[in-house]
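Design a sequence for this backbone.
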């Protein structure tokens, strides 16, 4: 508890969160490029500090430094782009720069780069969280494609894609957390896991840690599979309808080549998604129950109205996930799975 609650001992912690939230609120309510840049910087500085909050963590320090360097480079590009737009249009107001949308070639190249950056880099990842991060870049390409078309259908596709991806991504991370909880009385003796830095803080870090998880908890493994198939865009899951809406809007507006590129990046991203499913279902599990917990008998009391009703004895492997986790995963997974019965925006 002391280790995981370390951030609450830092008195600046609430102030950092306030800066992040304030920057985010300003960002969604501004209509000027200068205000956008200042809002992003206000939010980013708080995130730089938050990512390096665990001072004794090598991963936090390296991750925060990388984030800071990339953020600084991104800020340079934002300032450069803003200056070029101001030099050509004489204004930094978004309404006044609406004419920029006619420069389709630049937007075309940018969307191509975003989708291929995310799809290709995800192929080399062995960490599950970084894989989801790179997959997000690929999905942002679809979102940018919908935004660039500027039609009623594309705006509907943009909103729907954003909503379904938020639901699916949330479910994926909740499932990963739940898998970590479900493995607390198992041990992994593989060399790869033993050399993993800070394995006690985040139980699931590597994709290889999911090997054979279907044989440990088949229901949770199936929920993860449904979520991943939705990322890929397999019909009839909700992710398929979202991609279909974006591609339909692109084809109706004449973006045939860009639609083909989007389909190609989806196929590339499906490779590393399906690799996760392959390890979950077809590889042998590398976990075994800890010796110190294998033969332990646990006791529990059932109390109603302050009266002891019954005493029960059970083994460690009888412990299940808490109701908030199981209910949340069930609702999100069923939403992803059963959307085909009400396929409406």
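Sequence:
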């Amino acid at each position: 508890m002391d280790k995981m609650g370390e951030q609450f001992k830092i008195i600046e912690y609430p102030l950092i969160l306030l800066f992040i939230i304030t920057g985010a609120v300003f960002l969604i309510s501004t209509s000027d490029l200068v205000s956008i840049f200042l809002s992003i910087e206000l939010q980013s500085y708080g995130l730089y500090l938050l990512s390096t909050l665990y001072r004794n963590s090598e991963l936090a320090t390296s991750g925060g430094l990388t984030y800071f360097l990339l953020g600084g480079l991104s800020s340079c590009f934002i300032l450069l782009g803003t200056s070029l737009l101001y030099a050509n249009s004489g204004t930094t107001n978004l309404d006044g720069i609406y004419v920029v949308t006619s420069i389709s070639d630049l937007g075309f190249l940018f969307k191509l780069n975003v989708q291929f950056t995310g799809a290709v880099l995800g192929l080399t990842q062995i960490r599950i969280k970084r894989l989801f991060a790179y997959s997000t870049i690929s999905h942002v390409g679809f979102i940018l494609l919908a935004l660039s078309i500027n039609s009623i259908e594309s705006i509907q596709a943009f909103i729907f894609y954003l909503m379904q991806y938020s639901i699916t991504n949330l479910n994926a991370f909740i499932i990963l957390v739940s898998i970590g909880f479900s493995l607390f009385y198992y041990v992994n003796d593989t060399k790869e896991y033993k050399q993993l830095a800070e394995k006690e803080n985040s139980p699931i870090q590597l994709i290889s840690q999911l090997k054979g998880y279907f044989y440990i908890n088949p229901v949770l493994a199936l929920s993860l599979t449904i979520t991943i198939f939705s990322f890929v865009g397999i019909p009839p899951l909700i992710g398929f309808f979202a991609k279909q809406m974006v591609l339909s809007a692109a084809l109706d507006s004449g973006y045939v080549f860009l639609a083909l590129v989007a389909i190609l990046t989806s196929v590339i991203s499906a490779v590393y998604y399906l690799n996760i499913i392959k390890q979950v279902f077809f590889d042998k599990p590398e976990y075994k129950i800890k010796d110190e917990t294998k033969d332990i008998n646990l006791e529990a009391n059932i109390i109603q109205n302050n009266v002891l009703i019954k005493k029960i004895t059970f083994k460690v492997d009888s412990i299940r996930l808490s109701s908030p986790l199981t209910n949340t995963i069930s609702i999100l997974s069923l939403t992803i799975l059963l959307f085909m019965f009400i396929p409406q925006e």
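The longest helix spans residues 58-89.
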